[in-house]
Amino acid sequence: MMNYIKTIYYIFEKDILLELKNKDIISSMLLFSLLIVTIFSFIINPAADYKSEIASGVLWIAIVFSGLLGLNRSIVIETMDETLTALMLAPVDKSAILFGKVLSNTFFMIAMEFMIIPAFTVFYNINIFASSCLSPIIFISCTYGFCLLGTFFSFMASKTKIGEIILPLLLLPILIPLLLAGIQSLSSCITGENLENIYKWIRVIFIFDLIFTVVINAIFEYIVEE
Amino acid sequence: MKIYRILDIFVLISIAIALYMVFIYAPIENIMGIVQKIFYFHVSSAWISFMGFSVTFICSILYLYTNKPLFDYVAYSSVEISLTFCTIVLITGPIWAKPIWFVWWTWDPRLTTTLILWFIYVGYIMLRKFIEDEEKKARFSAALGIIGFIDVPIVFFSIRWWRTIHPNVIQKGGGGIAPEMMNTLLLSILAFTLLYISFIIKRVRIELIEKDLKILKKSFM
Amino acid sequence: MNNPFIDLVGVHKHYGEIDALKDITFSIEKGTFLSVFGPNGAGKSTLLKIIATQITPSKGKIYYNGKDGKHLENIFRKNLGIISHKTYLYSSLTVLDNLRFYAKLYNMKNYKKRIEYLLKKLGLYEKEFDYVKNLSRGMSQRAAIARALLHDPSIIILDEPFTGLDQSVSNLLSKILSEELKKNKIIIMATHNIDLGYKASNKLAIMRKGNLVYLDKRENISIDSFKEKYIKLVKYKDAYEKI
Question: Candidates 3.40.50.300, 3.30.930.10, 2.60.40.10, 3.10.20.880; correct CATH number of C31-51+72-242?
Answer without folding.
Answer: 3.40.50.300
